[in-house]
Amino acid sequence: MKKNILLIGLFLIFGIALQAQIKVSGTVTDDSTGETLIGATILEKGTSNGTITDLDGNFELEVSNKDAVLELSYTGF
Length: 77
Hints:
By secondary structure, this protein is α+β, with helices and mostly antiparallel strands. Helices cover about 25% and strands about 30% of the residues. The protein contains one helix and five strands. It has one helix at about 1-20, and strands at about 20-25, 40-45, 50, 60-65, 70-75. The strands form two sheets. A three-stranded antiparallel sheet has the order 3-2-5, with no helix packed on it. The longest helix is centred in the N-terminal third of the chain and has 18 residues, at about 1-20. The chain is elongated and about 30 Å long.
């Protein structure tokens, strides 16, 4: 009986962990020029989870859930 409860608990925890890892990726560009933005910051709203764009303006970020909101910031020269 204890083994069954333990196994069910492990499956629930494993299922929650799988749902919590959603990978989001994209390219950040300037609307007016179409140029990619290098070093733009992308943060998951309300968290410290974030990343920056690479030399081609690309980013990849694992967010907490499918309803996560991303905030973008960029300081140009």
